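Predict fold of Cellulose synthase-like protein G2; 488 aa.
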Amino acid sequence: MEHCLRPLNLCHVEPKLIAVNRAHMLIHGAALLILIHYRASFFFAEEASSPGQPTTLAWLIIFLGELMLSLTWLLHQAFRWRPISRTAFPERLPGDGELPSIDVLVCTADPDKEPTVAVMNTVISAMALDYPPEKLHVYLSDDGGSLLTLHGMREAYDFARRWLPFCKRYGIKTRCPKAYFMDDEDVSASVGYESEKEEVKEKYELFEAHINGYRNRNYGESRDGRLDHPATIEVIHGNSSDEVVQADQQQMPLLVYVSREKRPSYPHNFKAGALNVLLRVSGVISNSPYVLVLDCDMYCNDPSSARRAMCFHLDPTLSPSLSFVQFPQSFHNISKNDIYDSKIRSPFGTLWYGMDGLQGPLISGTGFYVKRESLYSEPMQEGTTANLMDLKAIFGHSNEFIKHVQWSDKLNKNILSEPGTVCRDTEHLASCHYENGTKWGQEASRFQVRICGGRLLHQLRLALQRMEISVLSPVAAAIFGGFHDKFE
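Predicted 3D structure, encoded as tokens:
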């Protein structure tokens, strides 16, 4: 009982930092008022009374420019008014059997611009999250409809069957295999670690070789088909002949390949449209109540991020009004002479914490755990009844999807009964014309308005809920992104 009463998270307010910020605002604001008074007084002086005075126009332009910059500075002070930080306690969560399931949505579009090996590293890092495997479902949207990406998914699943047990057995923190083998700091003192590490490294090099070999053999794959292809959905199953893998037989997270239908005559809305399709397809397969959205050039650096996010989503004092938990992004391969702030330190180091203190809506487009229900325009509660025609006008004409909209956390075992096959309804959900004539489509799609790359942040209105954002900055970043070379 005492364990249950302890809080899952804490919010920290730093009075000293707030005092320094507000004192700076006061001093800087007073200086701006003096400057504005000085500029404005010129227009009432005798020198400015003559219309032909050549300095009047220049003075006016400078004054208007300073007014605009002063207004911009004033608006940005909201981010420094009450910055807060948060701490999560994943060890206080209930047992694995009581945790909700999570769907991980990853998007890729072009295997030439987004190397398949790098994208698969992102997928594998998501599969390796420290979360019950039966409650973790990873979906990859391939907008290019590339056979190379599909082949990479199969190879990634086979390698993950060896990689995941290795990480759990030795407590590996860096769950992205490429990042792990490039960094010698994440080591274990356990007996047999070094020998098994070499074996896994050989398997990883073989995994890379298989994907690159397939690319070389199929180098002439048509690029025209990337804009004109039917929907393809496949639940990935392993075919590894590795005796160690076969003997281990550990349960694996669900891995699903999704390539939505694309036709030149239909707008596809880029990442926004891909996420909408993933939301629908995952809704009839796993229908997890929480969704993690990842860019293909980001990888899960901290395997505990899912549990730490649940510390907020499962907090009874926050959960009713909580829509998403955002993790700050971190980047590597940045020049030591980073004069352009390519690490985006200002947003993630200042603005995010300030918005958290103001409880304002802010989402970065990747690295966030969002409540699935908040992505529907009409919140649905399990057990409630609604007019079928009204639901079809909102969610489309898929009876299967409408049925699952009112359910949560129920894995559709019928779809998973036969390897590599899915029901016809999931392909219908991934068609390019599914949204036509629906409220879903009329709203320009939920992800396009609410999540698309973080460009339309201020248009967020997740089911009219007050949104909370938990900005967590542990010693090890939870989400890592590449720079220039798109390394996951």
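The first strand starts at residue 9 and ends at 13.
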